[in-house]
Amino acid sequence: DQQVKQNSPSLSVQEGRISILNCDYTNSMFDYFLWYKKYPAEGPTFLISISSIKDKNEDGRFTVFLNKSAKHLSLHIVPSQPGDSAVYFCAASEVFGNEKLTFGTGTRLTIIP
Amino acid sequence: EAQVTQNPRYLITVTGKKLTVTCSQNMNHEYMSWYRQDPGLGLRQIYYSMNVEVTDKGDVPEGYKVSRKEKRNFPLILESPSPNQTSLYFCASSSSGGAGQPQHFGDGTRLSIL
């Protein structure tokens, strides 16, 4: 039972344009949502997070939007750069959930120069 | 440099031969965890530790053991590995600031059990 879903396995975007990565979840007990970026042969690295009490969090070129009623979040990257090409994982955790991260299956983002 | 170090990075072994994957962090983090990544399933938690001598099962603990004798180390032990444990394994750590605290990941260990 996949509680965090990333329905697009891959996405290609032109350099300089906006990349939008989507994530849906089913567990209403999730309180925090995080995005991780992963390059080949490396571990995931933290990118940005959002608490369930907010609907938007911004950090430089990265913005995460949360729609609690729809149980949906998205990561926007503007402008997209070649170094953004990676696999992006959406993850979620519960307040009383041992700090466990529940991950989606990832979206491979390719930025086309 | 703050990091989580896993060894080995790659291992091919045979069914039933005990193996240990080491994990060490230099950030004085209380919380450590092991995940496995499989195609189509994302990362799933195997075991976690809230602090020294405190460990507990995650979502997929069968066939694995862990120990936390020191704060910096959190080894993953496969007593009798089987082919279904062929996977990519990640160790992670964080300061125990509660849910939402970003976890720092090692670079992974790819295990192949023949």
Unreliable residue stretches of chain A? none
Task: Give the terminus-to-terminus CA distance of chain B.
Answer: 36 Å
Largest beta-sheet details of chain B: 7 strands, mixed
Strand percentage of chain B:
over 45%
How many beta-strand segments of chain B? 11
**How would you sum up the major sheet of chain A?**
6 strands, mixed
Q: Helix- and strand-based class of chain A?
A: mainly beta
User: Helix and strand succession of chain A?
Assistant: EEEEEEEEEEE
Using only CA atoms, what is the Rg of chain A?
Answer: 13 Å
Principal-axis shape of chain B equals: globular
Mean pLDDT over the residues of chain A: 94
Task: Write up this protein.
The complex is a heterodimer of chains A (113) and B (114). Chain A has 113 residues and is mostly beta strands. In chain A, 0% of the residues lie in helices and 56% in strands. Chain A has strands spanning 4-5, 10-14, 19-25, 30-38, 45-51, 56-59, 62-67, 72-77, 86-94, 102-103, 107-112. Chain A is globular, with a radius of gyration of 13 Å. With 114 residues, chain B is an all-beta fold. In chain B, the strands form two sheets. In chain B, strands 2, 4, 5, 6, 9, 10 and 11 form a seven-stranded mixed β-sheet that branches. The A-B interface holds A 2, 4, 31-32, 34, 36, 41-46, 49, 51, 89, 91, 93-101, 103-106 and B 4, 31, 33, 35, 40-45, 48, 50, 56, 58-59, 90, 92, 94, 96, 98-108.
Observed structural traits:
heterodimer; A: 113 residues; mainly beta; six-stranded mixed sheet; 11 strands; 56% strand; B: 114 residues; seven-stranded mixed sheet; four-stranded antiparallel sheet; 0% helix; globular
Helix-strand layout with pairing:
The complex is a heterodimer of chains A (113) and B (114).
Chain A (H helix, E strand, L loop, with lengths): L3 E2 L4 E5 L4 E7 L4 E9 L6 E7 L4 E4 L2 E6 L4 E6 L8 E9 L7 E2 L3 E6 L1
Parallel strand pairs in A: 2-11
Antiparallel strand pairs in A: 1-3, 3-8, 4-5, 4-9, 6-7, 7-8, 9-10, 9-11
Chain B lengths: L3 E4 L2 E4 L5 E7 L5 E8 L3 E10 L2 E4 L7 E2 L9 E3 L8 E8 L9 E2 L3 E5 L1
Parallel strand pairs in B: 2-11
Antiparallel strand pairs in B: 1-3, 3-8, 4-5, 4-9, 5-6, 7-8, 9-10, 9-11
